[in-house]
Amino acid sequence: MNKPFNKLSEHYLIPLLLPVMTACLVILVYLINELFKSEYEVVNYYRWNKAQWTQYREQVQLFLAIFGALMVAQFYALKIKKSWFFVFLMLLSSVAFYYFDSSLI
Amino acid sequence: MLGQKKIWAIHNWVGLYAGVVIAVLSITGVVALFKVEIDQSLNPHLFKVQPQEQKVPITPVIDSLKQVYGAQYFTSLALPKTPKDSYLATFFVRKGLSMHKWQVFINPYTGKVLGTRDNYKTTGFFIRNIHVRLFEGLFGRQIVGLAGIALLISTITGFLIYGNFMKKQLFGVIRTKNLRIKMADYHKLIGIATLLFNLMIAITGAWLGLQKYLQPALVGARPGVYKPAKKLLSKQKDVQLKVDYDLAYQRARQAFPELKAAYMFPSRNGDRTLDIRGSVPRTAFERNTIKLVFDKINLKELHRYDVRRASTGDKLFYIQESLHFGDYGGILLKLVYAFFGITSGFLALTGFIIYLKRTEKPRQKRPKFIELKPLLLRWTYGILAVIALLFVLHILFGLVVPTILTIAVLYLSILFLLFKALFMFIKKRFFLQQ
Questions:
Q1: Domains, chain B, ranges and CATH?
Q2: Nearest to A15 among B195, B281, B333 (CB)
Q3: Predicted ipTM?
Q4: Is the pTM of this model over 0.90?
Q5: Left if phi > 0, otherwise alpha if psi is -120 to 50, otherwise beta: which for A81?
Q6: Which residues of B touch A41 (CB under 8 A)?
Q7: What does the pLDDT look like over B246-265, one tens digit per residue?
Q8: Set of chain B residues whose Cβ sits within 8 Å of the Cβ of A5
Q9: Among residues B347, B203, B334, which one has the least CA distance to residue A26?
């Protein structure tokens, strides 16, 4: 059965969600890169003690889980195409961007 | 307000005229993302060393190299980023049209020279030069900048007409009725999915390409540049001055522990300074923009520029290049950039196919009509042949010969086309009417 056509979703919400997805993807990849930083770099240039480094890694893992879950939900949203879900995910992503920007040490 | 038809017309004509350049820049851009990795994997004997316990002082090595190549040509010293990296001393020699950028690779543990090469004959330089200037030494950068503006206009107009062109079509559905419809559906899907990325590439690309004109008007002088109140030495004395590079590095580490120092630039203009430039981890600014400036003689800190503490304008200025080349998230982010980057080429290609299919019937009546497939193959082979020829000339002769050839062919072609158009106009206006 064909899915019903919803102009708001198809012409406005999806084109708005896709850039949000791109930003989430870039942050996700950045976080993966941070997680696998070499010990040499951490010891020489991060200038953190072990406790700070552990705290940072935990934060990175937390954000990795948040942005990973967001991306899965965004792909799911493209599949089910519910207007409220698009709006909800965009709001949730905005909160995640703000939280990421303000709380990662 | 522009109507949908006018916006579509702009999208159509901008894409058609700038599409080839955008496609070339898309492909070369993807390769340029991995310029350093390609160069290093092609020359592991120059870039990589076996780590040992103790490094030897680099200062005597640089002093002896200055004797060989000429102190006045010594430009920079690239520092090892990891224990497995070599030092890289650069000597820039320019005599008239002859230009060489000699790179000398040094083993940090033995002080021995691993090898030398002219950077202007390397694959890495070729990749960057073809993407940044299209090997056109006069206005190449600006042509690339204009292509960035074309991509920006194309992306914005494409977004504005997206809804009108989708009508009641669902997102993600690709119709396979005929080639034109199939390509149009891919064009819309990929275009809207990569909207943010293409906007970012277009804006940063336009800025980088047209920086020569935009920077003086919008920003003024380059941020963070240190200029002493007066010249302390003559140029000749400045380049002859001995500098303790090892001590300078230690001082930089002490003064700015987070700084991942990557380069040392001794002054050559009489400023008597040593710039130590690098990056700080977890920042997305252009590489090597954070710097310490030392006095060459006593190694006292004269100036410090930390873009993290600079104004928003400075931050915007220094984020363009890293955003454009995905230089802030490791190799994985570069792969994501490569995937997105190739889409602008794909959009140019699908747009071109849509245009050719739409205008196929009237074009078929023309005597010089060529079918779609041979036409696309002709363009592809032509572009590849030009790139291959430039590469061979670049490897054989360095920078100058392929650059002069590109300039000559490009502007002679433009002149030829202009004269041809003028001739046709005169013929039509004054002779055919009679």
A1: 4-36+132-211+331-381 (no CATH), 42-128 (3.10.450), 215-325 (no CATH)
A2: B195
A3: 0.92
A4: yes
A5: left
A6: 260, 281
A7: 999 999 999 999 999 999 99
A8: 168, 170
A9: B334
